[in-house]
Design goal:
This protein is about 25% helix and about 20% strand. It is of the alpha+beta class. It has a six-stranded antiparallel beta sheet with strand order 3-2-1-4-5-6, covered by helices on one side. About 15% of the residues are buried.
């Protein structure tokens, strides 16, 4: 594919990459969002990758496994693209939560900070993330 969408979905790798919002072409962040039956749906059986721009132009590209010419993303066939964004958001939230959980400070005596101290330092533990 010659295009860089704001979102890229790579089906063989079960990977979703975000290049929008706080991430751009240089700081794109991808996650393997596998391990579910989601990727095994028959409507995805011939998809290799999607470059999605969500700019109200008909230029979102779909690359097929059978090497037929690239097509356009058709939500009536593949479903609303939000399904991929939701998977990415859930994975990103779990990473943010894990980072928060593992970001601990200890004093000179080896005592870990209290939850209240941690919240003061880092803010509350993330409970939601929406792209």
């Amino acid at each position: 594919m010659s295009k860089h969408g704001t979102w890229t979905v790579v089906f063989p790798d079960e990977t979703i990459i975000k290049r929008t919002g706080e991430f751009n072409i240089n700081t794109a962040l991808g996650y393997k969002c596998g391990g579910t039956d989601f990727w095994m749906q028959s409507k995805f059986s011939n998809l290799h990758a999607i470059q999605f721009t969500d700019d109200n132009l008909d230029n979102d590209q779909v690359e097929f496994k059978d090497h037929s010419p690239n097509g356009t993303y058709d939500s009536s066939v593949y479903g609303d693209f939000q399904q991929f964004i939701d998977l990415w958001d859930a994975k990103h939230l779990s990473v943010l939560q894990e980072d928060w959980d593992n970001n601990n400070v200890f004093d000179a005596q080896g005592n870990q900070e209290t939850t209240e101290q941690k919240i003061t330092r880092l803010g509350a533990r993330p409970t939601t993330y929406t792209s």
